[in-house]
Specification:
The complex is a heterodimer of chains A (171) and B (489). Chain A is an all-alpha fold and 171 residues long. Chain A is 73% helix and 0% strand. The chains are: A mainly alpha (171), B mainly alpha (489).
């Protein structure tokens, strides 16, 4: 019961902050709302007993990513008004209508299917030779999911090389 | 279960290890020996060649490796050969182009190889996570490759558009995957198939299927998810466009077939309908939009959208024969599409962009060999008899009719007829508009002539002797799990 209350409170907070991020006119305010949003997601992970993910969420997203966003906010000139033909709000009504319809549709599907068959699936919990959140995650990454883990390292290398290429001054 | 990997696991990922090692070697060489582009090309080609040799030596195996995350089967081998072949041809046609554009070759070759690595994991992955990481590795490489011409605003636009829409589509795909995981409790394709088998699918599963279908639709540029394709194809460096339209498309189709045919046969009735509609809309919109294009790269972009529509027919049919026919078509498509792009790449010279249809004026006089090659590629793309494209179309349309999708085949035939107009328009420009012909003959370097020769060889030989391709495509389709469980409807 307490879990359900915590979940719904957090969900409403996360959604509300998400809406605030995209509706605030001031860019810096929007970034601050984003930080709060990330923190609420981290709390949600704690409620779900994924403490390690919660710590990573705070370190990487609320920490690293937001600092990057602030750099972008400082470097980009946001004072200039958008030009008439590329005003992002010109299709706002259609966009709002479409995304509203999509949201109602998704909500209807979720409510309808879970009211009929409550909690049909419980994820099988594999037998772990180790205890604890971090150990279990590490165990999975280095045994069952070693291949995607290693390929992710190539992915990061590609992203790094790409960032250097795009940022390098032409010789 | 012992921790870590056994020696067999390392043996089965030898092609991927070789490719990774080769890519890193190319990157190191580009730092240690600057201005040695020829050496880098040789190193990159040797890497692809060695990987290809190991992949071919694995043909006939049907095992899973790395704790069931990778399949080493005929299907994976077929797609790996397709991917590596297109990577090799792209490398060959890139080398003169890079000189013209003044691009440093090291990072470029590295990214081509890393994209191929991602594609290889997409063709052999048996788990949503492996497939997704493979897709992401490929996609990130392409975002950078599309923007490689930094001073060129069209290239910048292509990279930004591809990145934004690609990131969005990955979000949609991931959301769909997470719903499938939530509904079944596993990311493993055979586990998903087992969990969904029997009971009627819940709406959440269907929503997941639709979202995964939409996310994959972006990657294969199916209408209505095709809006990025013309702009990205036009703005990206021409060899990258070629690679994007062949390698990326082939690997995405491999992933699509793995997910839907191996993982989701239980909801086959639902996704067959989805892909039926996508196939019809994709081929029709692609062909009609191609009719009015004056830029060759844009025209081929729309034509490749139309070809994605034809290929989707094989997924709709979903039987062993349907998938085999699709693989044959894909195998043929590699040669004809890369060949056409090789010709466009050649037309880029130091002072001429050479992407417009009118740049082809009088090419038959200036460079008769290139013009004849282009003639073959266009006839093949249109599906005219002596070429490989005809054999591919006959098989694909035949399989569609045999499975009972008569109307789909009728629409596809009508579309092929429409497509002839714009393919033959290219020929008209090369032969008939001679008097306006300006410009010098094209110079064909050794690397480019090999690329053109291989593409032409494939287009001609598979048109006359398609048996070789048929046999391998059939073996590849047979090796898919659960392929027989989809019955004819």
């Amino acid at each position: 019961m307490a879990e359900a209350i915590a979940f719904y409170t957090l969900s409403i907070l996360i959604l509300g902050l998400g809406v605030a991020v995209i509706t605030t006119p001031r860019t810096v305010h929007s970034v601050v709302f984003l930080v709060l949003n990330f923190l609420c997601v981290a709390v949600l992970y704690v409620v779900l007993r994924a403490e390690f993910l919660a710590v990573i969420q705070i370190l990487v997203y609320a920490g690293g990513i937001v600092v990057l966003y602030l750099f972008v906010v400082m470097l980009v000139n946001l004072k200039r008004q958008p030009e008439e033909h590329q005003d992002p709000r010109r299709l706002a009504k259609i966009g709002l209508g479409l995304s509203g319809a999509m949201l109602v549709e998704l909500a209807a599907i979720v409510v309808y299917s879970y009211s009929r068959e409550p909690s049909s699936v419980t994820a099988p919990s594999p037998a772990f030779p180790v205890q604890g959140n971090v150990e279990q995650l590490g165990w999975l990454l280095y045994t069952d999911y070693l291949i995607p883990f290693e390929v992710a390292s190539v992915l990061l290398l590609v992203a790094m090389v790409g960032a250097i290429i795009l940022a390098r001054r032409e010789l | 279960m012992p921790a870590g990997f056994s020696a067999a696991d390392f043996y089965y990922i030898l092609p991927e290890l070789l490719l990774t090692g080769g890519a890193l070697l190319v990157l190191m060489l580009s730092v240690l020996t600057p201005k040695q582009d020829g050496l880098l090309l040789v190193a990159a080609l040797a890497t692809v060649g060695a990987t290809l040799a190991v992949v071919v030596s694995f043909a006939g195996l049907d095992v899973t490796a790395s704790r069931g995350l990778l399949a080493i089967d005929g299907f994976a081998a077929f797609f790996k050969v397709v991917v590596l072949l297109s990577a090799a041809l792209t490398l060959l046609m890139s080398s003169p182009y890079l000189k013209t554009e003044g691009i440093q070759a090291g990072e470029y070759y590295f990214l081509i190889l890393c994209a191929a690595l991602g594609m290889m994991f997409m063709s052999s992955g048996l788990d949503l996570i492996t497939l997704f990481i493979g897709l992401e590795t490929m996609a990130v490489s392409f975002y950078i490759l599309a923007g490689f011409l930094k001073p060129n605003p069209r290239s910048n636009e292509a990279a930004v558009k591809y990145f934004l829409l690609g990131a969005f589509s990955l979000g949609v795909l991931l959301y769909g995957m997470s719903l499938l995981y939530g509904a079944t409790g596993t990311t493993h394709l055979s586990g998903i198939a087992a969990a969904l088998g029997g009971a009627s699918p819940s709406l959440v599963v269907i929503l997941g299927v639709v979202l995964v279908g939409a996310g994959m639709g972006f990657k294969i540029a199916a209408v209505p998810f095709h809006m990025w394709a013309p702009d990205v194809y036009e703005g990206a460096p021409t060899p990258v466009t070629a690679y994007l339209s062949v390698g990326s498309k082939a690997a995405s189709f491999a992933m699509l077939i793995r997910i839907f045919i191996e993982g989701l046969p239980a909801v086959g009735a639902e996704w067959t309908m989805l892909f039926y509609a996508l196939a019809v809309v994709t081929m029709t919109v692609g062909n009609i939009a191609a009719l009015t294009q004056s830029n060759l790269k844009r025209m081929l972009a729309y034509s490749s959208i139309a070809h994605a529509g034809y290929l989707l027919m094989g997924v709709v049919v979903g039987t062993e024969r349907g998938v085999a026919a699709m693989l044959v078509y894909l195998g043929v498509y590699v040669f004809m599409q890369l060949g056409a792009f090789a010709v466009i790449t050649m037309m880029r010279r130091s002072d001429i962009i050479g992407e417009e249809l009118k740049d082809l004026n009088g090419l038959s006089k200036r460079s008769p060999i290139v013009a004849f090659a282009m003639l073959f590629f266009m006839l093949s793309l249109g599906g005219i008899p002596p070429t490989a494209g005809f054999m591919g179309k006959v098989w694909l349309f035949g399989a569609t009719i045999d499975a009972g999708f008569i109307w789909l085949a009728v629409i596809a035939v009508a579309n092929s007829a429409v497509s002839l107009y714009y393919y033959l328009r290219v020929v008209v420009f090369m032969w008939i508009n001679e008097e306006e012909g300006v410009g010098s003959p094209l110079t064909i370097g050794p690397a480019m002539s090999v690329a053109l020769g291989v593409a032409l060889f494939g287009t001609v030989v598979f048109g006359v002797y398609p048996q070789f391709l048929f046999e391998h495509a059939e073996a590849a389709a047979r090796s898919l799990d659960g392929i027989a469980s989809i019955t004819l409807r």
